[in-house]
Amino acid sequence: MKMLRFRSPSIRSLDQEILCTIRLLDDSEISCSIQRDTKGQFLLDHVCNHYNLLEKDYFGIRYVDPEKQRAQQPYTMCFRVKFYPHEPMKIKEELTYLLYLQLKRDIYHGRLLCPFAEAAYLGACIVQELGDYDPEEHPSDYISDFKLFPKQSLKLERKIMEIHKNELGQCAAFAELNMLQRAHSLETYGVDPHPCKDFTGSTAFLGFTATGFVVFQGNKRIHLLKVDVSKLKFEGKTFYVIGIQKEKKLVLTFHTSTPAACKHLWKCGVENQAFYCAKSSQIKTVSSSNIFFKGSRFRYGRVAKEVIEASSKIQREPPVVRAQFGQSRSFNSLSHKNLIMNMEPLVPALPSTNEYEETATDN
């Protein structure tokens, strides 16, 4: 469990309250006050209690500080999907809607890479979630009002419109489920890209998913290790992935900008593998006696198997998440400006050496 630690000349007492703003998946915000030694779990619980959510394990609070925001309050953090369900149709309550909102962000930022046909279908699902096509209300270029992708060509917009016209009568919930079914089969589903350099000095992006470990250069995947990753370790700025590919041992070496960034990458990898691959969280600490590099210790929470089992036992009436998020259903009231607002950068900022211990990322 990480602790939120802020260093500021104006904060000298553990009893002094710190104001925080938490940005939700639809870019609305809620505020709360914390103490200097408050743990990140408190903020996650605060958001989940606000929406009456029980399946908290899929989510996290992200705090990135590229603008040195610790110098003044309120501190801004983001409520995001941390672990993407391997089978999204099995999650209960209305978590599918939260996952849908997260995937819209991933598409917009280019994290969820997809070929033209898939992009057009996903785009049409997003537009259909807002309502049916109406030839009397929507001009020939109405899709251009929606900024759905980082690079949105006229050809893509026309294809989205073509598909959208054929989805007449499809309700919002069904459009969301169709989008989830298609998106979760893509290679970059759930990938949070970490920038680094490979052994040649070329820029690469590393990511961890429910099915393994991927490496991209630009939009091209150059490595994919599924359940065959046997070790993750780091030393200084160097990160190692040891696995099996085509029945042969494979060692991949990458270099990060700082030792803190490397440790952050390692922790993300360990936590990801623990959540998706471990059968139990009974042993919660990864230590030097395990397969990971000596001197490193990491504690993790419930694993996916346990979360799914707990979810299957939920008997209550599900919370109405959609209404609380206030998602619009009207084309007339919705434009690209309020569809996509206040977006995160495409590549998440990693903490510098001096900032790492003071910066709370996904809790």
From TrEMBL:
Gene Ontology biological-process annotations: actomyosin structure organization
Source superkingdom: Eukaryota
SUPFAM superfamilies cross-referenced by the UniProt entry: PH domain-like, Second domain of FERM, Ubiquitin-like
Entry GO terms, CC: cytoskeleton
Pfam families: FA (PF08736), FERM_C (PF09380), FERM_M (PF00373), FERM_N (PF09379)
FERM domain segment(s): 18-280
PROSITE patterns, alphabetized: FERM_3
Protein name stated in the entry: FERM domain containing 3
Organism of origin: Seriola dumerili (Greater amberjack)
